[in-house]
Amino acid sequence: MSAAVIVVAGGLAGWTDALTHPGFGAWQTVSVAIVVQALPFLLFGTMLAGAINAFVPAQALAKALPARPALAVPVAGAAGVVLPGCECASVPVAGSLIRRGVTSAAALTFLLAAPAVNPIVLAATAVAFPGRPEMMWARLLASLGASVGMGWLWLRFGREEWLRLPSRTSGHHAGRSRWEEFRQSFQHDLLHAGGFLVVGALAAATFNVLVPRSVLDTFSASPWMSVLFLALLAIVLSICSEADAFVAASLTGFSPTARLAFMVVGPMVDLKLIALQAGTFGRAFALRFSAATLVMALLSSALIGWWLL
């Protein structure tokens, strides 16, 4: 009996040491910071999605875009320039747009463009890189090019059966208050997407704590490896698009093109965004779409970086 007590006490002591270790404290801080940083934008996105679902007529959204899907894609990308949003907000909005009859290629283009090229993000980029306006323009062009390119790519090769939207009806129902529909839609999307946001934040925090800083110095010496490494870093860190420019600006050991790739890839492909897409559209879609988006974002960053930077 005494031996069992000693073993249990030793195990509890080990757990206590682990919970008080500085690394665990850093993991807690990073995971909570990601959730707290993203939650306001997730709230905004789910509220906007609920408002679209309850108050906007089903035909209005489709009529706002050109009838031809190939033209609707760049228009949807340009809409991201004037509509502030974050990657956490863009996923539920895109899901609501598709449910309301907007072509999926246009909705997915908006999903990628809105968090990457909106005025808040561009202003933050200009502030983060003072005296270097070419970084802001490079981010705008590379992000918009990747978004529109992915929209056209989905239009050509995408399959609607890959999209698994939540099985609930949308739009106004006779005999039900529009405010009640807004409340139900907002509550459903927030709870559904919020859980996946937490999963992505925990994964990003784990990587952030385990990878040593010395790895950064190893990869910065190679131009191409630095681009790939910062793209991977953007995926796992899952930093909100309104803040990632300041992180990119601090990575002074890397080339401007590598830092551009960090800012272009992050708002389009990161762990929390992949998790949100999997929860909203299905895992099969999220894996295919994220992989293709990563390639498109890297190509666009390399091309614009070679041209402007």
TrEMBL record:
InterPro entries the record matches: DUF318, UPF0718
Membrane-spanning ranges: 34-56, 105-129, 135-155, 190-211, 223-248, 285-308
Taxonomic superkingdom: Bacteria
Signal peptide positions on this chain: none
Key word Metal-binding present: no
Pfam families registered for this protein in UniProt: ArsP_1
Any GO CC annotation of this UniProt entry: plasma membrane
Keywords, comma-separated and alphabetical: Cell membrane, Membrane, Transmembrane, Transmembrane helix
Location(s), subcellular: Cell membrane
Membrane topology: Multi-pass membrane protein
Protein family (similarity comment): Belongs to the UPF0718 family.
Protein name: Permease
